[in-house]
Amino acid sequence: MEPILKTENLTIRFGGHTAVDHVNFTLPPNEFKSVIGPNGAGKTTFFNLISGELKPTEGNVYFKGRLLDGLSPVERTRLGLGRSFQITNVFPNLTVLENVRLAVQSREGVRYNPFRHFSSYKKFTEESMEILATVLLDGKADAIASQISHGEKRKLEIAMLLALDTEVLLLDEPTAGMSLEEVPSILNVIRKIKEGGNKTVLLIEHKMDMILDLSDSIMVLFNGKLLADGTPEEIMQNETVQNAYLGGMPHEQTAHA
Amino acid sequence: MISKLQGKNFWLIVIAAVLAAFPLFSDSRTMTILLTQIFIFSILAMSYDILLGYTGIVSFGHAMFFGVGAYTTAVILDRMEPTLGMFLLSIAAGMLIAGIISFIAGLLTLRLKSHFYAMFTMALAGLFLVAAEKWRAVTNGNDGFTFRAPEFFQDRTMFYLTALGCLIVVYLLLSRFVASPMGRVLIAVRENEQRTASLGYKTLHYKVTASVVAGIFASLAGSLYSVSLRFVNTSVMTMDITLDALLMTIIGGVGTLIGPILGATVIEFAQHYLSGLARDYPIFERWIIFFGIVYILAVVFFPQGIVGWFRQVRAKRSGKRAAALKAKQPVLKAKAEENG
What we know:
The complex is a heterodimer of chains A (257) and B (340).
Chain A: E1 5-14, E2 17-27, E3 32-36, H1 43-51, E4 58-63, E5 66-67, H2 73-79, E6 81-83, H3 96-107, H4 122-134, H5 150-164, E7 168-172, H6 183-196, E8 200-204, H7 208-214, E9 217-222, E10 225-230, H8 232-237, H9 239-246, H10 250-256
Parallel strand pairs in A: 3-8, 3-9, 6-7, 7-8
Antiparallel strand pairs in A: 1-2, 1-4, 4-5, 9-10
Helix pairs in contact in A: 3-4, 3-5, 4-5
Chain B: H1 2-25, H2 29-55, H3 63-79, H4 84-109, H5 114-134, H6 136-139, E1 145-146, H7 156-179, H8 181-191, H9 193-198, H10 203-229, E2 231-232, H11 239-252, H12 258-277, H13 287-301, H14 305-326, H15 329-339
Antiparallel strand pairs in B: 1-2
Main location (chain B): membrane
Transmembrane segments (chain B): 6-25, 32-51, 57-77, 84-108, 114-132, 158-179, 208-233, 245-267, 287-310
GO cellular component, one term (chain B): plasma membrane
């Protein structure tokens, strides 16, 4: 089967520092793949290269066999590459519902209509409410986004991504900075996405139990290089990985979990 | 919610009706002129708020669109017959020119980040001001020129009603615009431009559109302004006009359409009465000094303007009511579930 996402020698240098170093990877459709690696391994930079926020120094990204060279993040999102951000990135002074509604509106291609009243698109609002229900935020629909808790913002972030309904979801540490009690609900949301079976997911995470539980495959980045790529079992047994990441820095997991 | 909205609309209609009927009760020329002035500057301030309050773009060059409208109307009425038809044509022509200029300027400059954009618009407006001063064949430079307004407007009342009509139409058009799917995206751009882009919206398109819409309506305000004076000179292109619009928007309340109207009202009245005081207290010759102080106080203590402050007060009150209601809420919810 043709991979939905592929990179070839993907590299970016910031001055003398090579943040992502000749990464080759393929992602088959509907696979759930996790990206792990210690802090500074280049995981988020790797995401930025795929989503188009950064331009690679070298190498290419392919989406469904199509070269993405020179396409802006906007165009990539429209093609079907949606991403969430590690740092919470929502519209702070709009309601939770409006945040999601904007994403639905974008997906439906209603971009430039300057005359109709926005609420006449009733189904957008209804669908937004449904999505909010999926991420267990329906009770907060009318709250202002800056007023909800951090965990709820993370859920909102995922809701916006779901609303875009892209084939590929790039999830950058969806549980970052969440309190322990909030993690299971996010986990549920992600599991629901996986069970839907029609989304390809690339997930950055530090919580190993969560990764082992959800992933079809795992790739390990270390100092920008792709260290290993395989099933969770293979990765757990891989000696280089253990030395470099799991064994070599035992505090890493706990520090960021 | 719906009844509340209707309540607001109801009051707006009442106010509009009172204003429309005003000339029947009062023949105070000063008041008529002052109110006309307020209507015109309300249009200007609303158009500015599309940029500042809705899209989050700070522009220091708004006067150039105002000036384009003012000059287009003045020149056409001066060179051709001063008829009502020509007046309408000149408004349309001014809007078209302002639209084209704002489109090109927007395309060239809106890629810039906020304060660079602000500087650039200032420079551009400066360029237009210089052009108006030097192009004496058309503008007669700083001296300006007088022209005859259409017969129809010889009666101040007619012009008063026309300006009021324009204000109402622009208010309705713009309130529909900001509530449209497109207007919603403009607000999203203001809130978080990069996030808007990552949702798949091309933010540059929206910023350019906002600047074109703002430019067009500023030009309308300019056209009305020059007819109200029957005179035009380079003062319509100066920074003062932009600052007026900025001041009115901020004092009234950014991000609303009523705000700029309130701001224009407050500032025009204040200007009128403060400069009137100058006869007794010479310090009021420099009434603008007081404005500076008021402005600073407004930015420090009422950053949301009059409308924002009013909303806050109301939110607090309804917040208390909501807290009182909350005690009853679970019961209501259980009931709803039973029924559902």
